Amino acid sequence: MSAKALILIGGEKTGTRFRPLSLSTPKVFFPIAGKPLLTHLLESIQATSTPKISEVVLIGFFDTSIINAYIATVENSFTFSIKYYQEPPLMPMGTAGGLYYFRDEILKPASGETQPPEHFFLIYADIVCSFPLHEMYTFANEQRPGPAVDFVIMGVPHDDDLSSLKNDPQDNFGSIASIRGEVVHYVEKPETKISSVINGGVYYFKASILQDALPEAKKLREERNQANAFLQFHKPNDDESYSTGNSISWERDLVKMLADKSIPGYRVFCYQYTSYWRQLKTASLVLPANKLYLEKRPQESATSLENVVQPCYIHPSSFPIPPTAKIGPYVSIGANAAIGPGVRIVKAVIGSDVTIGQHTFIKNAVVDNQVAIGEWCRVEGSSNGEVQQAKEGEESDALPTATVLATDTKVLNEVRVYGGVVLPHKELKLDVLNEIIM
Amino acid sequence: MKALILVGGYGTRLRPLTLTVPKPLIEFGNRPMILHQVEALAAAGVTDIVLAVNYRPEVMVATLKKYEAEYGVNITFSVEEEPLGTAGPLKLAEEILKKDDSPFFVLNSDVICEYPFAELAAFHTAHGGAGTIVATKVDEPSKYGVIVHDISTPNLIDRFVEKPKEFVGNRINAGIYILNPSVIDLIEAKPTSIEKETFPQLVEKRSLYSFDLEGYWMDVGQPKDFLAGSALYLAALTKKKSAKLASLTEEYVNVGNVMVDATAKIGKGAKIGPNVVIGPNVVVGEGARIVGSVIMANSIIKEHALVKNTIVGWNSEVGRWARLEGFTVLADDVKVKDEIYVNGGKVLPHKTISANVEKESIIM
């Protein structure tokens, strides 16, 4: 009754909206609440008692050395084995391309096991949530009339217009229509509202899905491509999951075909997840992701310093924090940070080896590794949609647009950076106001 | 000798500061603006000063009574029933200005400079004309009325050219004059402009001269110019090695041109300057940064705040890690909460600012 977790981690060509942070660190390794994003997911997998997940497979197209270096640093913390399957250049593209290409490997017994895995989870690595893997498994296998459930999508109910999840009007989510839990219709990124349940990017399924349904979907896709070869249809530009040519999309092809019974014989259900959820699309979304994980996954090393307002994560090597500085809430600080006297940091993610000069103020900002900020600077994210003169004590819920300082940015004394995005290795001598500095 | 200071009305250009303090009493370099002028006039031997005002608040009367005694001068208020322009007030104050044959000074209350009244009087007597205009040189004369001199007679004004498109000179009217009592006879008892109606008549008579001003000059009637003028004033004090300035050996002084009232308290690690005036009883917190700004009496700048190109009015409070810049003006009794950013905000009295002000705006 063993299980494997399959994690789609993307590659250099995906995650472009996470620039400039992804120029130096793959999105899945960006530290959120003191840990690489992917490590949070692996911890959730570790904490899943049933089914027992004996192997985690990372699928993507990053260089093997980058991923193996990460695996080497974390694998001792986990009881499961971690493998990386790098998608070769000539394989089918699309979100399901790697799964299709490596399906035989994935279906083999995990190392040290004799039986092939029966249960699978597929998870997008840029999802921030509690990963209810045990709950989805239990939901799939509970008693209900009719044949067994083969496939479960984690649905995130959302009543409003999703604006609180969106950082960009381009953001769209897959839309799930279900009747008594059974998915009857699925549309990836619809332009109009189909239902109030969106696809949460976490799936449970049985071996037959990889073994039979996915090859079937691939075949159907090829047939349809041939039939539609002369048709040009609307294709969003930056849509990574879109399927063209030799590619196959997990959502647009497999999930849609299963739901509308183009591929008959599988029961597809939607597990209604009601806790916190976000997708880390843009660099700005580092801040809400950081806030959620600091709240929901408190770190053991939380200090009880008077001038640190919890929740915060501060790497042990970044102490001492001067008594005149004030940190938090919702601040993560990486290794070897030098925080000057009188510094104020709130709602920010600070990378490693960052220097912050005395009396500087940082709010709603993502500060990458090796950034040096001078004295009396103000680095602040803009607050989109926030009413200029909010009433006393009120703070807007609108998502701030983080100010992002990429690796090795230098901010000179007394400079103010407001709402800007700064690419690596730049020196800022003058104030920056809602600008991208190339 | 006698002098007339054109004070005018409500000083609306310098709002919100002038909502609670009459413009002549607003501190410039920690002393009321009018006092700089009264002092310079008294030093040049002036005994009678007329303040031409549209309204006469009690606090202004009381303050000037004090100066009367202090400087041994008679100060009279000449109150206009209706605005009389820049020449009308001379006619209204005729009785005093014409009480003897000596020439009298006229000055605009918004103008700051080194007030060379004694040299001006000597120059005026020497050329023998009816009037002398103090002229200052500017870089961009196209925005002003420019003085053009006679070719043969030195300093004699030949004509004025309003906002010249081609360069005809760069001397402009600095808003300070010395005139013979006879000039008043050219003015009718109605709203009139001295620049547009009286001076052209003197030019016609070849009786108006100009006197070149040395040093700085600024019309400080608006907040931005008030700060620029303060910087000029401080720089002039530095040049004179004035003891009014904070010593460069003070740990908190950065670069220089810093004036700190003796009753102000400066916290450890604060960095102040250049071009800063700090008023009485001001408290500057540890690690605060102040540059290009004026902090009026009894205000508090809390720890780690940055105040740049800003006027902080009286009894105000700037919170920790707040940042004020972009010619922000806080009026009397304003509170800016911790961590707030204000850029170019004009904040009316008794307001609390608890959200960022990103763009130039008026906080009612």
TrEMBL record, chain A:
Pfam families: GMPPB_C, NTP_transferase. InterPro entries: GMPPB_C (IPR056729), Mannose-1P_guanyltransferase (IPR050486), NTP_transferase_dom (IPR005835), Nucleotide-diphossugar_trans (IPR029044). It catalyses: alpha-D-mannose 1-phosphate + GTP + H(+) = GDP-alpha-D-mannose + diphosphate. Residues 4-246 form the Nucleotidyl transferase domain. Coiled coil: none annotated. It comes from the Eukaryota. Belongs to the transferase hexapeptide repeat family. This is mannose-1-phosphate guanylyltransferase. It comes from Babjeviella inositovora NRRL Y-12698.
UniProtKB/TrEMBL annotation, chain B:
Signal peptide: none annotated. Its EC number is 2.7.7.13. Pathway: Nucleotide-sugar biosynthesis; GDP-alpha-D-mannose biosynthesis; GDP-alpha-D-mannose from alpha-D-mannose 1-phosphate (GTP route): step 1/1. Pfam families: GMPPB_C, NTP_transferase. Keywords: Cell cycle, GTP-binding, Nucleotide-binding, Transferase. The keyword GTP-binding applies. GO terms for biological process: cell wall mannoprotein biosynthetic process; GDP-mannose biosynthetic process. Residues 2-233 form the Nucleotidyl transferase domain. Belongs to the transferase hexapeptide repeat family. Involved in cell wall synthesis where it is required for glycosylation. Involved in cell cycle progression through cell-size checkpoint. This is mannose-1-phosphate guanylyltransferase. It comes from Babjeviella inositovora NRRL Y-12698.
